[in-house]
Amino acid sequence: MTQTVLITGAASGMGLSMTKRFLSAGQNVVMADFDASKGQSIAAKFQTEFPNQQVDFYQVDVSSPTAVDQLAKQVLAKYAHIDTLINCAGIFAKGALHELTLETWNKVLAVDVTAIFLMTKAFINTMIAQKSGVIINIASISGLYGDYNMAAYSAAKGAVTNLVRSMALDYGKYNIRVNNIVPGPTNTPLFQQNPPEVIAKFNQASPLNKIVEPADVANMAYFLASEQAQAITGQNIQVTAGFGIHSGQPQ
Ligand code: NAD
Predict the structure, then answer these.
(1) Which residue among 186, 193, 237 is best mutated to probe the pocket of ligand 1, counting the most ligand atoms within 8 A of its Cβ?
(2) Which domains are present in the chain?
(3) Residue 138 near residue 10, CB atoms below 8 Å
(4) What mean pLDDT value characterizes the chain?
(5) Which keywords label this protein (predicted)?
(6) Each residue of 113-137: pLDDT tens digit?
(7) Which end of the chain is more exposed for a tag (fewer CB within 10 A), N or C?
């Protein structure tokens, strides 16, 4: 049977690149994103490019319990099974803790952490019944280390960093593997908003003198979803181009 992957945040950046990666490998892709106009047009384009597979787009706010329940009902009515769930949708808010409103704090936590709770709850019983499944969360290097002006984002991604271990422990007995991909700065539309001099500094902070491309994350996701990764679960796997490995000692 053709494998089916559900990807949140699929209309942009890494989610979009993962959509293309899994379609190129012959899988069906369920794209879920808040951005309906972008998502629908991308899904239509991919459906033309990959006529032998299913590409569906669903407009959803992954932080809304009712929207996620609705998504699960529609997706499971059509596909009945889900092989891989990728929780990629995420948002960022700039600011030290005291500069953030409670509303902003709650919003970042809702989209970056609670959405993983909601999406997993909505699809885990299907995976348990299948006795197989793969869940991949997109965390961040900002959840492993401290970062300036990223209090809410670091807290949210830090939670994801440890959540993966609980998920892997609880679902391993059902043959469900759960891993995080931990990207460093990645060349997505979000990142491209930085001025060129800032982008140059990011490049210089990598021993490879480059930042991560969305396709690098997509290749890791494809590997983690595959049988090749059948012994890998509960891990935070960095895809960073070496960003963040330096102890800080001068050269
Ligand atoms: P992006 O902004 O290009 O794409 C994110 C997508 O998520 C967008 O299409 C957006 O519409 C969607 N989205 C946002 N809120 C949503 C919601 N409530 N419901 C449904 N969809 C929603 O971002 P990206 O750079 O591709 O980031 C993808 C993931 O990678 C995020 O979790 C982000 O935190 C993480 N990340 C990004 C970087 C980076 O440098 N770009 C680094 C580390 C981790």
Answers:
(1) 186
(2) 4-239 (3.40.50.720)
(3) no
(4) 97
(5) Oxidoreductase
(6) 999 999 999 999 999 999 999 999 9
(7) C
